[in-house]
């Protein structure tokens, strides 16, 4: 995860495509990332990222069709927000504290699936 400096604390990485999703690895992400496409979801692997306790990594996904497949460590709490037709599959920790990944998923069709390794 790329830390933003004090000069640009609100920096957001933006990934855009018309058709086709995005495959994102943790070391290439900033603290805030936006992925947008007409058709296509986001496949995100954060297993190698050391997110400090109390820190929040925020990912926003915008698409008409396409969900989010997220892979995180077992201790990471995942919060899912947004509007989409599709459920959320996550059986991870829900207690506050520790590292947090916030997914804002906006779209017509596509759920959010969280896998823990």
UniProtKB/TrEMBL annotation:
This is Cell wall-active antibiotic response 4TMS protein YvqF. The lineage of its organism: Bacteria, Bacillati, Actinomycetota, Actinomycetes, Kitasatosporales. It comes from Streptomyces griseorubiginosus.
